[in-house]
Amino acid sequence: MLAQQLFNALVLGSVHALFALGFTLTFGVLRVINLLYGFYVAAGAFAALVAVQSLGLGLWAAGAFGVVVAGLVAVVCDFLVLTPLRRAKAPELSSLIVTLGGVLLMNSLMQIVFGAEVRRFPARLLGQDAVTIGPLVVAPIQLVIIATVFVLVALLFWFMERTRLGTAIRAVAERPDTAALMGVNVGLVVAGVSFLSAALSATAGILIGLNFNAVHPYMGEPMMLRGFAIIIIGGLGDIRGALVAGLALGFLEVMTAGYVSSNLKEAVAFTALILGLWLRPNGLFGRASGKRA
Amino acid sequence: MNRRTVLAAAAVFSATAALSGLAVAAEPVKVGAIECLTGPAAKYGTMIKAGFDLAAEEINAKGGILKGRTIELIYEDSAAQKEQAINAAKKLIGRDHVVALLGPTLSNEMFAAGPVANERGLPIIGTSNTAKGITDIGEFVFRTSLPESDVLPVTLKKAQAKFGIKKVALLYSNDDAFTKSGFDVFKETLEKLGIEIATIETFSVKDTDFSPQLTKIKSLNVDALVVSALAEAGGGLVLQARQLGIPKTVPIIGGNGFNSPKIAEIAGDSADGVIIGSPWFIAKEGAQNKNFVESFRKKYNMDPDQFAAQAYDTMYILAAAFDRAGEADSKKLRDALTKTDNNGLLGPFKFGADRSPATAEGVVVTTIKGGKFTLLQ
Question: Do domains B29-146+285-345 and B149-278+365-375 have the same CATH topology?
């Protein structure tokens, strides 16, 4: 049972981390509290679902379609909703209020278009039959999730540290005005980060939809609360922190439900958040505020 | 961006997330119906309306009630809102001068609109309200729907007899009033039947991952899983239980929330063997039920559900009560209703002293086979 619970924890932790990656990127670089992020989860999952059901695409093509659609939606939303705020140099809290309105509006629109009911991807899209490996029961999708998280984290690191665009993103994160003076196209960087973070969010949505067979307009909502906890514990804009905090939270939740009481599962996440803030106020790998990503 | 702002964001986010008339002979007898025809509960309301309309049409075609008068149904949409249900009741009574009211769809709406009808001395019959205390509103409030507290014990007893269940794991969503009340009934009944509860596990209605709870349950080697959850979480839970290797020889017994095709839609083959009690199901035996299903399909081009069947039966109960009352008078109708003795789709039906169904005899225990509900033999 312990081995299975540890595996359950690894899967749940990976799901948390996957969701938090793009979330922490938006915070770290764009410096906005973008509640629309939760909507992109559902947007990506629904786009992929439509691609599978109506366009007859295979899993990978549908996944790529969902990711791109969510990314483009994010660029448009960002342009419409956040650019005017940026131009007006509005205080940080206004982005919270604006995107809160945005997410409520978009979720309602999704509900009108798709209905509130829970849907699932067709059963035979990906081998759903679990296989037994020693003491473990493992579903193929679970391995896909774990692999995706680690590959994405490695890719993100490489991208941020080694590519021109990555360097530009870090420059904008540090000092947007100075970066602009140095010839960095800030508008392009902002659009790029919006696309990237929504694409990550959509990836999470599609994989979670496949794993738990639950695609619905509000699927991002419960994940947002845990997402907040993870990026705060991990450090805002810290990719490595999001990975470690996500995995740790998954571990804590599963172990609490498995060995203590499932009643306390929810409480653990937020107790961890409070403890994290007390003990590591600047995040797990705490660097000074504002110098991340 | 600093952490304090983010915390404020988290706080704001969590706060919002939590976000009788005098009738001349041969004139139609007016009956009002308040149902959710739009809004989130519209799927129930439209099925109920379909059931009423079909039954009223049949009754009127066969010569109506009270020696040749027809039933005229006047609908008002409550849209799942208490305030709208109250206004609908006032409008139907005050302006349309109806003799009796049917509905509303939701228990919450009945708690709001029921007192309006009761104060004016007008019988109001809920056909879909399952909450506790509905008929405590007053002596003019009736219901034909079986409360969960009547259905669940029948399900458990039948499953115990068939599978020799001695030890179960009990699971429920602890953040929903409906699933919590289902859990209370399950727990009480299990204790009464002498079935050991090996563990009680909880989850949120929004949860999608049940693997820690199910892994724990798997290690306890129980004879059955008893689950009080809504269809969405329930479907995912059933699927994960089978994926994690809890064998199909361990049945999963669900509450009323499981009584939905959604379970099979989400869980696929894994839903086979799920056990659910219901006041009615489509393949119920008997010519009466076959006729009902056939006429319903012909008229609406879709399958009826439990709510349509309950509404259909209720219309016949009401029509018979009118004939017993002898005239379209609300007070006499109330007294006639208490003497109901109907044998309809839901089986033999009488009102108890509390104006709720007297027995749970009509409850059928079903199991999913190949994605469809079939009778548990």
Answer: yes
